[in-house]
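Example record used in the benchmark description.
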Amino acid sequence: MPASISILYVDDEPCQLELDRQFLESTGEFVVSTAESVDNARNMLSIKAFNVIVSDY
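Model output (structure tokens):
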């Protein structure tokens, strides 16, 4: 089984976070962690490394 790609997805819209997380994880290739703010994302980054960061602008 290939290694999963870890994604940190940052968006201030909880519904969008959940929909996109479900879609990305449905492929089986990604493990998605979500954050609703930059501060929350920074805290997560201080604890864990991610392969990709996707951020709402």
